[in-house]
Amino acid sequence: MGSDPQYVKYPDLALSQYIFQLTNPSAPKATRQTSLKNLQDAISEYKMAPLYRHLAHPIDGLLNSSGEGSAQKPTSAGSKKSAAAANLIASKKTSHRVDVPWDEKLYQKLEKENEKELEGFQKEEDEAEEKAGETEILAAKGKRAEFWARVGDKDKAISTYEAVFEKTGVLGTRIDIVLAIIRIGIFFGDKLLVKKSVDRAKTLVESGGDWDRRNRLKAYQGLYLLTVRSYNLAAPLLLDSLSTFTSYELCTYSSLVVYSVLAGSVSLKRVDFKANVVDAPEIRAILGDGEEKLSALSGAISSGPTAGDEEMTDASAATPTPAPTAVNLTTLGQSSTGQSDVETPIDFSPLANLVSSLYIGDYRSFFLALAAVEDNFLSQDRYLYEHRGWFVREMRLRGYQQLLQSYRVVGLGSMANDFGVSVDFLDRDLAKFIAAERIPCTIDRVNGIIETNRPDDKNKQYTDVVKHGDTLITKLQKYGQAVRLRGSERG
Question: What is the rounded CA–CA span in Å between residue 411 and residue 451?
């Protein structure tokens, strides 16, 4: 029933990461320079005249600060377009930007090459209309849509894909077109377009999509939910995609591992966290030590709600987890979509330390690992950057909750020592969560203790029943009055 996926090559989402890094204040200078070179090479190779103008034009270029102070202003339509595409960049401050130099001759050359390609597409479409059937005509129009996606013209790419969508009746092709539109939305940071297109793809898949496209959509939906901070909804989708991942046009497998672990760490309950993150074979193959990787890859270990429970130890008795070395994941999966299989080796040790220290309760190491994860992952990834502050705050909260739920009274100094922070910092940090009713406890600074106020579930249930009962009685009384009125009218 299934067929090979179509329209998966463009846009190249790696380019959006390069654009992001050019304005990322947390990116090292060498990374920004490398991103600039990679972007310039891609613009020349793919003949991306529309994207080049959008980024580097001296008047209204998104990445060219020299145009910001110009007396010439773009049109209101252009301003809206720039505002929508501003999601491509990390920061609007020019102090951290690396300008993309504008070369008028290069732009004219790229434009001429684009025009030449478009003439070829038009000729192919005309010939298909005269000599071939509907399938050949749609194939020619599909090439035009891929062309606009390749050169970075968002509006024309979407409109051309929509035209092809309306003409084709093959469900698999229709799903592939919507997935391509989702990637265009992700490239330009258009979250509203991505949301609408994901819902649209779900409807199509549920109407009879094959297994491969169902599986690919799962990864698309998980990544979208990650970008809108719905980590609790993204976690099961991303974790489930690990064992059957084929969406290499969306992200690399190593990136999927990072997203899955971070989403699971911040949102899953402890039992689910152990089963789906700590003990998951796909994750242990990446984050574990040498023996664990070999065991996971060979299938010797399996995850489950009770996997490895017999080895649980207290934080005081636990031994540090050996730090994993940098891993190249190109041997763990092969792309069948034509995308490049070469991945940059990633040092997963901060991520591995975060998972292990949180689970065993080594909170000092947990805070150190959290800082390293922020520096190495949250601040360097386009999809994680926007919500990095929220993620760090929620992970601190998770650590505090995990420790406090085990005790009735905890010494403030002892807890500060466990987390490796000062008493003043812990006092201020806990006060924010207490005020927001995220942690049920009180701080007695005079006596230097923290008292937990365990919620009484039975009393809460009783209060809820009384509240809902009162509401129901009120509704019944109003209904009874209405019935009596109608009865008297009939009499």
Answer: 9
User: Locate tokens 């998972």: which residue?
Assistant: 355
The listed range with the strongest mean pLDDT (94-103, 331-340, 424-433) is 424-433
Give SS3 for 249: coil
Q: Average the pLDDT over each of 7-21, 58-72, 168-182, 402-416 and give the range with the smallest value.
A: 58-72
Tens digits of residue pLDDT in 367-389: 999 999 999 999 999 999 999 99
Strand order of the β-sheet with 449-452 is 409-411, 449-452, 441-444
| Phi then psi dihedrals of residue 255, to 5 deg | -65, -40
Q: Look at residues 167, 235, 165 and name the one whose alpha carbon lies nearest to residue 201.
A: 165
User: Residue 243, exposed/middle/buried by CB under 10 A (0-12, 13-18, 19+)?
Assistant: exposed
404 touches 452 (CB < 8 A): yes
Under 8 Å between Cβ of 304 and 279: yes
Q: Hey, what's the torsion of the CAs at 450, 456, 457, 462, to 10 degrees?
A: -150
The answer to whether the beta carbons of residues 307 and 301 sit under 8 Å apart is yes
Left (φ > 0), alpha (ψ -120 to 50) or beta: where does 189 sit? left
46: phi then psi, degrees, rounded to nearest 5: -90, 0
What is the rounded distance in angstroms from the CA atom of residue 78 to the CA atom of residue 52? 15
